[in-house]
């Protein structure tokens, strides 16, 4: 029979860590009070990090009374996306049939399921995108915090996968006011699985650091006394033990256990034995235990080292022993301190390394290949099988390649792009020229390494010879180039692929080929219209295109792009609207973003305001459902600009500020332009051009002048802010640059960026009538071609600003009449103001005052504070009387407060509002408290009336969170 220790000492106490436990208690108290904390526990291997965490989690520990989730990352799982998250939440049992009905998965938390499930393919749910899964996990944590403080304790973070660390960052960014404590323990002096993700987590949240150092002499003596309670340790023994182990608790306990097993004590004989211990105490101790055991014990130890806490049947199969031998061996190894007392894992990674060192690298590789086959035979998921295969060096064989491909698909389903890329990198080792592998790898890297993603997609495209497959790779390449601001490269690839398709398919392609061609062409229109360098070629290409009926997704996407491009050229609003409406004609079929956003712009330019807003509501609803934050922010910013042009300034401010608040929580927020542009535009209308210029200066996007849409809206915002700030020359220069840039790109729509209107008004006011007349004439030609009442009204306004005498008043009367019958309410107010001033100057003072009075009223209702004040000043100067233009009560609300107030007034609960706006419930509560105070109401029921009296309405039901029949990296 093998040797077994008869006297098993009690578990060693935690010594020397009172300071760290006290610190954890203080951080726990802060979390209970709604001040979230990140604590980073670090130290070398064997220093006692896990023991400290267990003490903190004990019933009498500092975390008592809080909901605590503990998980430990494993080396074998480093490549598996969200493995750290599953270690934390796995004990909740949320992925089983019964668990999926848990209230913890209420609302947006259900989107967490792809990350939690071992096999997301088994879920009755759509595949998760990166943002939707992150958002779902956030709401799962929020649901847990609904009943009290939450502690997430993640051990061995040096082996944590990148996606789980990114989620912790995501969670902590949104944790303000939440009762949350995150404790992460990691080993110093060893490589990190995801160093960039951990570095970002630390940099963003400045964790409290709790470092664990070696034990001192008194603490070593205490541990020794615990192991040998019947014998006082000699000082010389304690000194030697400290010297040999360096104060490492793991090594101290290991040596004390070995001495006790050998029948020795903390005396001179024990001291002499300690003198024989080498530098690698744990490895030597493990070898000493195993060399006295039969081979089947060693085989079981190796099986546990490879598979971990598994069914004894599988351990027996891997070790090629009987189940009875497995059970006996586990008892032996547990008695020897090599296996955890509570579960079937080796007691420490140093123990695991020592067990596997005995068979060498080639022997370990054989074990891992056998383990992978075993897991496959028992029906484990591809990702679980792949964890073993990734640790086998060398080029994978055909079977392994198949498993790794399936594992990548599984990772893609849960939105774990880093894991998918890691699996595909190994596949590429075996199949370096497979276009499908390169294409999938490129798509997986698009978020984390966009430059390499484009390189791989280019390579995949060049290796693809079939024209149909080449068109498909060109679509992926083109849209990725668009995302990384390399759209000219994408446009070239798509053009070549489209020409090759035409040559191959002929004039009458089959239906499937026709759809592929239409998809490729629509992608070319999207990518090629991003930058000014490629837009002229795209516009020329559209001249000969016959719009299709819009019966398929690709046709609708093509129609959407044709509608916005025809609007950009300003050829005729009626034709544009017809194309846009056909692009939206898809009953019961969800439309993609590239069908919706272009049509919203086309409809807005054509004065189809209600239709444009409905389209944007659809985008907001869809991006809210999927937590597509970039799309959501872009849609909010776009709607802000639309609302501003239509004279809904408070609503425009609410959208812009909400977009900025969401943007501030995202890692990619620095590259966005649209929220800043929208915010600056609104600030100028509200009479704060200084802050508007500051907002524009915050834009950090490189090469902004290359882009078609964002650049010209940016220039309009800057020019208007400079003009309002009194810098006439600066404003004229910016508007001139806008006009030249639009001409270079072939953009001739008069209302897309009406630089000519602003130029004519500024020059006319400065007495430079001839120059103003040239700008007005330019705009008039474009407006007559486009034909909307807004465009024609702007043209008349520009002519009136440039003219004098009866010509001036005639043009301005025409402008007021046209704009009054258009959506441009702020433009109408501007026309009234200019007409009133012109009449006063021409001697028709009474009529002029009436128009100025009307201008003030309309401007105030629009929220155009600056215009209202200017018109009032003109009225007073003309002898009229009017009280000061005072702020509406709504002006006291921030944009986000206004948004929250509107949603709550429409009947949404705090949780619904939070999910809609990607913020915490606590944030909504704080905003709502501020709204009540500023509007002087005490409860929700009074809010609708308060908003109505202040001149606002509740937000429409369509803007409420997912789950209602109707609701609501720019």
Automatic annotation (TrEMBL):
Cellular component terms per the entry's GO annotation: cytoplasm
Annotated TM spans: none
Keywords: ATP-binding, Nucleotide-binding
Annotated GO MF terms: adenylate cyclase activity; ATP binding; DNA binding
Source organism: Streptomyces albidoflavus
A GO biological-process term: regulation of DNA-templated transcription
Domain HTH luxR-type: 886-951
Designated name of the protein: HTH luxR-type domain-containing protein
Region (Disordered): 949-970
Any Pfam family hit: AAA_16
